[in-house]
Structures are given as structure tokens and as C-alpha cells.
């Protein structure tokens, strides 16, 4: 999920991170690198640091450059905070954008001062970027050839030669790899991911936890699994994984809010669908972006719809406006259950 | 073909930044700064930085990246650096001694032209940026001489233009006074008061094993292809003729004693770590060792 969120922030086709991870790990194995698993993790999460990069819309090009230059550093910090991730992965992410000639980011390291694993991930990233270029996708052999232009500049000559030999060795470079990792606490990781996305905008700080608390509290009253409801509430946040997103701190029952919510849940569903462990949540997320008047909803997406609206309304007017929206924008049964729980007239 | 040794010490600005932030360090001095890109990273993140070195081109580069907050080179000014100006007479044989040994005739001519053009720039900031950008060209040429079939041929002026432009993108202000000076360790440490002193001490006989890409650029800046940088270190604490353990320890100890900063951050290696720890412990009460990976080790002493 973290990898898919990184892809979304970088504006890439979903799954790019996982393909990069497989390629980096296979290349590491070809080079005889010590920790193949660390290379895989670093490949998967190389761009997750973008989650902490918030570029103001009117920022000058220099400011944009300096903010973006810190993305690998943020990524390294994030990996360092995840329990169970192989220790070298954080430093591979930190330096994977360094260039051999000392013109990369974030440290402008040069030559063999750049760890080989990080430099190798940089090559794998550039190769895949060329293959999946949305404007001009390249044939893999052509993509390998195009990297030669940066030999000795962006890429270390010896490593690029190793990549060419890896590629010509005929290995299946883009097939998934079966590696074993220690168990991660996925729920805790999702809580932190949602909190980080929320923190990008002061208007949305702490929003996911408010949503999760409301959804988790209301779910048993509707005969739903509270843990799943909370997980879905947090997954809504990944829909806001985009470089720039308009503010949404306006009336949650307005048409503007509807359009934006539909877009966010659609994005969240697409990201969830690209991750095997979350694919089952995708239809619920997509459905939660609708209004009741567009067709009856299942209780779970209806609960999410209500939670999104209820947490965005001012407490003083929440009961009155939710009651008014029941049956048109919101599911009446779910709304009634919520208002009853609040002690408000239904 | 010149030997380009593969033993570059990793001096990471972001790692130092992490160490500084964890300890509330707001200012730092590096008396052996070398190429001050690590100080540039710290500056970009709001830390006041000060540096010193004995090689003038490092200091000039520092004037471009560390001291300079605003000055960049406009297109016309970059053009005046990278190309021969009409009507101007250039001493095109200034670096003829390198011709056929390290560089081609054309490259040597460009080195002479750039030497004259950079020295004619009006501000220290611009000079530093141009000098640093052009150094990348020198590195490119030396690497290409070793791997002629692996690297693209790029016209010299185009390569120079690219690297100068790339360098000046990192000019930034941190709202603080940042300094660099051409001075020995003691002078640099005595000149500024900071929260921390960062030292990445040269190894024994460090002056004799200096990278060709470093001494050649000092020679280029001085306009003397026969320049021997070893003499610059001769009268310093690390310039002694005897390189036994005791002499080296004394030299390090002298540097540590010269700093009155509350924090001492010494970058070392796992092999040298016990010795460095002992030396730091003689000058600071609390000593901790941070080793983020097998190549990096920091000994941090706190008063």
C-alpha cells in the first residue's frame, strides 16, 4: 500500500513501485549484493518520501527543486520508522537519486561515496521510467540503450555495464519475486500512513482518525465489523495521495464536495485495487463516493459516506443537516442510527 | 591515463542534518570542509554553517554555495565564462603541460580560456559557482579519458554550461551568516562560535594521497599546472613527516582541543573508532557512537 501511495504521489501508473522492487531485487541478486530483501523494499518504497513534500501552488521553481530534493530523505526517515523493514533499505532510499558525477540529490554525493545498492536502484528506476514513460514508452532494449547517454554522469559506468549484462543475460526482469519478510503490523502502518497524508494540509490534520473513530463506533449499531469500518475509513485518506489537491474544507453536502469526494474515493479505490491485500476494499471505497439518491448503497459504504459528511460539519448544525440529508444524499437507515447514537431527534 | 582512486569518503549532509536535529544543534563548523556540498545541505535546512580549508578552490566554491545567498549567473554571464570572448587575448598555452598527458589540445585550450574568464568575474559568489561547475567538466574529461567508449562526447562549452547552471540551482539563503575561510584548523575553529564542530580528519599521509581531481583543480585555479599541493599542508598539524600512531594522535588531539563547541562530531571508520573514541573522550565528558551503516561511523562528544 505504501508503494502504491508513493506511485500516486509521483504521478506514476499504479504498480510501478512493485515492478521497480522486483527489478532492483533481481539486479541485486545478479550483482551478488548482500541483502536482496533490502533492495526489494527500497525499490518498492523509493518514492514514498513524496508524502512529506508539500509544494505550494505558487512556489518558485527553485523552491520546488529544493523541496523535491528532500523526498529521498523523507523516504529514508519513513522507512527507518517502520518496524520489520531491513535496516539497509532506508539508506538505499536516501541515496538512490544521487548521481555519479555529484549532481544528484539530496546530498550531492559522488563516485564511490554513493552506496552501490543505492546507485543500482537509481539505474533500475531510470530504466523502468523509460519503459513506462506515458508520452513515449520504450522497448526494454531501447530503454537500456537510452541509459548509456548518462553513463559516467548520472550512472556509475561499472554498474551500468552490470545492468546491461543483467539485461542481456535473459533473466525475466519484470516477474514478481518471492522473498520472505518479517510480519509487519499492517494496521499500525495504515494508521501512520493516513495520518501522514492528513498532515499534508492543516485543514485535514487528524481527519482519518476522527473518521475511523466515528465509523468504528457506529458499525456495531448497524451490525457491521468495526475493525473493517475503521480500516476503510483510514483508506479513504489514500485517495488524497496526489501532488496537488484542491482544498475540501467547504460544505460537505454541496455539489463541489460531492464531486471532490467522488474523485477521492475513486482514487482510493484504484490504489486499494492495485494492492492484493486491499483489493477487496476497493469496491466499498468506490461506492462510498456516491450519494444515496444515485442508487441504494450497502450499509458499509453508506456508513463511510455519512462519516465523511458528519466529521466535516460543525457540531452545532450536524444533527439538523444530517436529518435533512437523510434519504437524499445519505442513507436514511444509517443516518437514523447515527442520530440515535447522538441522542438527536430522528 | 591518470589513476582515479575509488575511496571517496562519504560525507553526507543529510546524515549530519539528522545528527544536528536530534541534538538541537543550530550552527556547525567544519575546519576540513573539502568540497562543501555537505555544508550546503545543512545551510539549505536552516543551520548556520562555517567552513575552512587550505585549498583555495574549496574555499572559492564555498563562497559560491555557502556564503552567497542570492547571486547567480545570468545566461550572458555563463556564456562569457564558457566561450572565448571575441577581441580578448587568451594565454591559450597556460595548461600546455597537461596536453597529451591528461587532456587533449582542445581541452587544454578551454581550460586556459575558462581560467581567464572565471578570474575576470566580478563577484566572489559568481566565481565560486562557475569554478564548481567547471570542476565537474574536469572530472568528466578525466573519467572519459579512462572510459572513452562508455561516455558520450559532449562539446566542452555545452558541458560547462550544463554544470554551471546545475550548480547555481543550489544557491539559497538560510537567513543566517555563513562563512568560509582559507585557513588552518586552529584559525577556523577560533574564528567562529558554533554549537558543534564536525571533523572528518584526513587519514595519515592524507596530503600525499590527495585525489587527482582535487589537486588538478587547485592547479587550474592557481594557473600553475606544476603546482604541488602537498606543500600547503606541510606546516599544518597533519603535515608532519613522521606518520606513526603517536604523531597522528597528537595531531587529532590538537584539533579537538582547539574547538570549544559544546558538541564534537567526528566522522571515523570502524577500524579507527576505538582510537577516535579515546581521543574525543579526553576532550568531552559524554561520548556516544552512532553507526548508521558499516561505512559511516560518528563519534559524538558532548560537554
Keywords:
heterodimer; A: 346 residues; mainly alpha; 17 helices; 0% strand; elongated; B: 303 residues; 12 helices
Structure description:
The complex is a heterodimer of chains A (346) and B (303). By secondary structure, chain A is an all-alpha fold. Chain A has 17 helices and no strands. The mean pLDDT of chain A is 93. By secondary structure, chain B is α/β, with parallel strands linked by helices. Chain B has 12 helices and 7 strands. Chain B has helices at 13-23, 37-44, 56-67, 75-82, 105-119, 124-146, 156-168, 185-191, 212-222, 230-233, 245-258, 273-281, and strands at 27-30, 48-53, 179-182, 196-199, 263-268, 286-293, 296-302. In chain B, a hairpin with a 2-residue loop joins strand 6 and strand 7 (296-302). The radius of gyration of chain B is 20 Å and the shape is globular. Chain B starts with 12 loop residues before the first helix and ends with a strand. Classes of the chains: A mainly alpha (346), B alpha/beta (303). The interface between A and B is medium-sized, with 31 and 34 residues.
Amino acid at each position: 500500500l505504501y508503494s502504491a501511495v508513493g506511485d500516486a504521489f509521483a504521478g506514476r501508473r499504479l504498480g510501478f513501485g512493485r515492478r521497480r522492487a522486483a527489478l532492483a531485487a533481481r539486479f541485486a541478486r545478479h550483482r551478488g549484493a548482500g541483502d536482496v530483501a533490502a533492495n526489494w523494499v527500497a525499490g518498492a518504497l523509493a518514492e514514498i518520501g513524496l508524502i512529506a513534500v508539500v509544494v505550494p501552488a505558487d512556489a518558485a521553481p527553485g523552491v520546488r527543486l529544493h523541496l523535491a530534493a528532500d523526498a529521498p530523505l523523507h523516504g529514508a526517515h519513513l522507512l527507518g520508522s517502520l518496524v520489520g523493514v531491513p535496516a539497509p533499505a532506508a539508506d538505499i532510499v536516501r541515496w538512490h537519486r544521487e548521481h555519479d558525477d555529484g549532481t544528484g540529490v539530496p546530498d550531492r554525493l559522488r563516485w564511490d561515496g554513493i552506496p552501490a545498492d543505492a546507485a543500482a536502484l537509481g539505474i533500475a528506476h531510470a530504466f523502468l521510467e523509460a519503459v513506462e514513460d506515458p508520452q513515449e514508452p520504450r522497448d526494454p532494449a531501447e530503454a537500456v540503450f537510452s541509459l548509456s547517454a548518462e553513463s559516467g554522469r548520472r550512472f556509475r559506468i561499472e554498474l551500468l555495464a552490470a545492468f546491461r549484462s543483467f539485461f542481456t543475460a535473459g533473466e525475466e526482469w519484470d516477474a514478481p519475486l518471492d522473498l520472505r519478510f518479517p510480519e509487519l503490523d499492517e494496521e499500525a502502518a495504515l494508521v501512520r500512513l493516513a495520518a501522514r497524508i492528513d498532515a499534508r494540509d492543516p485543514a485535514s490534520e487528524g481527519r482519518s482518525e476522527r473518521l475511523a473513530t466515528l465509523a468504528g463506533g457506529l458499525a456495531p449499531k448497524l451490525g457491521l465489523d468495526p475493525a473493517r469500518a475503521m480500516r476503510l475509513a483510514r483508506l479513504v485518506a489514500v485517495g488524497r495521495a496526489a501532488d496537488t489537491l484542491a482544498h475540501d474544507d467547504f460544505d460537505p453536502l454541496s455539489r463541489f464536495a460531492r464531486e471532490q469526494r467522488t474523485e477521492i474515493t475513486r482514487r482510493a479505490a484504484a490504489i486499494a485495487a492495485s494492492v492484493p491485500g486491499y483489493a477487496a476494499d476497493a469496491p466499498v471505497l468506490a461506492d462510498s463516493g456516491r450519494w444515496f439518491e444515485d442508487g441504494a448503497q450497502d450499509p458499509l459504504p453508506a456508513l463511510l459516506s455519512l462519516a465523511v459528511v458528519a466529521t466535516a460539519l460543525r457540531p452545532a448544525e450536524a444533527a439538523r443537516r444530517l436529518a435533512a440529508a437523510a434519504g437524499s444524499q445519505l442513507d436514511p437507515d444509517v443516518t437514523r442510527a447515527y442520530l440515535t447514537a447522538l441522542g438527536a431527534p430522528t | 591515463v591518470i589513476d582515479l582512486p575509488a575511496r571517496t569518503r562519504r560525507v553526507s549532509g543529510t546524515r549530519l542534518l539528522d545528527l544536528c536535529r536530534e541534538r538541537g544543534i543550530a550552527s556547525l563548523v567544519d575546519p576540513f570542509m573539502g568540497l562543501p556540498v555537505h555544508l550546503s545541505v545543512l545551510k539549505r535546512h536552516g543551520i548556520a554553517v562555517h567552513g575552512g580549508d587550505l585549498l583555495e578552490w574549496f574555499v572559492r566554491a564555498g563562497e559560491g554555495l555557502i556564503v552567497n545567498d542570492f547571486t547567480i549567473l545570468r545566461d550572458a554571464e555563463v556564456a562569457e565564462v564558457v566561450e572565448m570572448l571575441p577581441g580578448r587575448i587568451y594565454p591559450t598555452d597556460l595548461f600546455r603541460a597537461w596536453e597529451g598527458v591528461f587532456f587533449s589540445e582542445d581541452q587544454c585550450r578551454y581550460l586556459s580560456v575558462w581560467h581567464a574568464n572565471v578570474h575576470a568575474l566580478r563577484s566572489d559568489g559568481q566565481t565560486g559557482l562557475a569554478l564548481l561547475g567547471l570542476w565537474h567538466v574536469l572530472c568528466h574529461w578525466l573519467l572519459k579519458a579512462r572510459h572513452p567508449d562508455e561516455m558520450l562526447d559532449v562539446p566542452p562549452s555545452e558541458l560547462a554550461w550544463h554544470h554551471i547552471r546545475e550548480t547555481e540551482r543550489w544557491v539559497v539563503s538560510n537567513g543566517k551568516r555563513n562563512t568560509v575561510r582559507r585557513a588552518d584548523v586552529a584559525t577556523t575553529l577560533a574564528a567562529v562560535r558554533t554549537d558543534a564542530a564536525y571533523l572528518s580528519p584526513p587519514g595519515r599521509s592524507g596530503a600525499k594521497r590527495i585525489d587527482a581531481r582535487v589537486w588538478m583543480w587547485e592547479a587550474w585555479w592557481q594557473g600553475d599546472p606544476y603546482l604541488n599541493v602537498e606543500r600547503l599542508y606541510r606546516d599544518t598539524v597533519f603535515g608532519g613527516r613522521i606518520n606513526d600512531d603517536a604523531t597522528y594522535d597528537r595531531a587529532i588531539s590538537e584539533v579537538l582541543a582547539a574547538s570549544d563547541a559544546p558538541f564534537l562530531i567526528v566522522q571515523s571508520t570502524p577500524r579507527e573508532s576505538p582510537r577516535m573514541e579515546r581521543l574525543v573522550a579526553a576532550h568531552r565528558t559524554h561520548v556516544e557512537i552512532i553507526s548508521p551503516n558499516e561505512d559511516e561511523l560518528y563519534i559524538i562528544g558532548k560537554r
